[in-house]
Structures are given as C-alpha cells and as structure tokens.
Amino acid sequence: MAKLKIVLKRSLIGRKEKHRRTIRALGLKKINSQVIHNDTPQIRGMIRQVAYLLEVEELKE
Question: What radius of gyration do the chain's Cα atoms show?
C-alpha cells in the first residue's frame, strides 16, 4: 500500500473550525509539521477538504 507524506504549509489562523478539526485529525499541529499516512479514501477525503493548507507527496515503498 502506498504512503502519503502530508506537510502543513499554511497557518490555521482565521480558518473554519471544521478545517481546523480536520488538520488536527490528520495529526498536524504546527506549520511545517509532517505526518505519514496510508493512502486510503478516508485520508484522501480529508486532504481534499483542506488541500489549500497542505503539501502532499506520495511515497513509494
């Protein structure tokens, strides 16, 4: 299964509360924090909702 490296690139100040909760659910806290998740439809949906705040890279295994 492919992995996704997700990096928070923009601030959460002034963003909708729903978007803030989505970022926290992904495990991101501060700008430039990064996490690695499996590439699942649930994670892809969360990324799509807040894509304007993130940088996503696909990792090959």
Answer: 11
